[in-house]
Structure formats: C-alpha cells, structure tokens
Write a structure and sequence with these properties.
This protein is mainly alpha-helical and 140 residues long. The chain has 5 helices and 2 strands, in the order E-H-H-E-H-H-H.
Length: 140
C-alpha cells in the first residue's frame, strides 16, 4: 500500500530579517488594549490576538515543494513500526528504565532487519522483471 503523498509542505519563513521585523513590531506596540480591562481572560485574549497578528505577519507561511521519491519497499507496516520506534525513543529518553531501553534496542534491531529484507526483496523483484538486467543492477 502506498502512503498518502503531499507534493508540498507549509513552513514558516524564519530568518534574521523576519526575527528583527517581529521584534520591531513587538517594541512598537503600545499594548493599551491589553491593559484596558481588569478581567484576566479578556486581557489574555487581547494579548494573544495582538501577539499572533504580529507573529503571523512577520513569519508568513511558505509553501515548499517536497522532492522525496517514493520508495516501493516502504510498506504501511514499516511506516507504522518507524512511528512506534520514534515513540519508544522519546519514552526511553525521558525514562531510565533498563528494561525499556533493552526493548527499544531489540525493536530497532528487528525493524532494521525487516527494512533490509524489504529492500532486498524489492530490488530482487526489480531485477527479475527488468528486460536489461545489467542496466537495472547499475541503476540500483
């Protein structure tokens, strides 16, 4: 099964120029609307509205083209296992449990073996189906 693909990704344009622009906007703001009331909820909402308006204008979203090529050997199971591995990694990083670390290392070893085997099978199938086997081998 092929994973869902997006041809683009939205990122914020953050560099020295945009950071200086943001700091300038923050320093020029009077913040009168924030302190015009005694209600804390209204003050917070007013602050967030002002702050986010400046943030979004200083750091606009930029559409970036993804240049990833689809790899046939990546299955839904491998994607799921990689996600699980990342979650285990964060759990191990935040925990000093030796059993969890042992399980994580074992999981990584098994996942690496599965990925290696999936690549092997995919490339063997490509070579088997190719009309010019030598060219296919060189391309792989």
């Amino acid at each position: 099964m092929r994973p869902p693909s997006k041809n683009y990704r939205l990122i914020r344009n953050i560099n020295d120029h945009t950071i200086n622009d943001f700091l300038t906007k923050l320093s020029c703001e009077t913040w009168d609307t924030v302190f015009s009331t005694d209600d804390v909820k209204i003050m917070l909402n007013s602050f967030l509205d002002t702050y986010l308006k400046m943030f979004y204008s200083s750091f606009p979203l930029k559409r970036v083209q993804l240049n990833k090529k689809y790899k046939n050997w990546i299955t839904l199971g491998i994607l799921t296992s990689c996600k699980q591995k990342r979650e285990l990694f964060t759990a191990c990083r935040n925990n000093n449990n030796p059993d969890l670390l042992k399980y994580y290392k074992s999981y990584c070893r098994i996942l690496s073996a599965v990925i290696r085997e999936a690549k092997k099978q995919n490339y063997a199938d490509k070579i088997k189906k190719a009309s010019n086997k030598n060219k296919t081998i060189w391309n792989i």
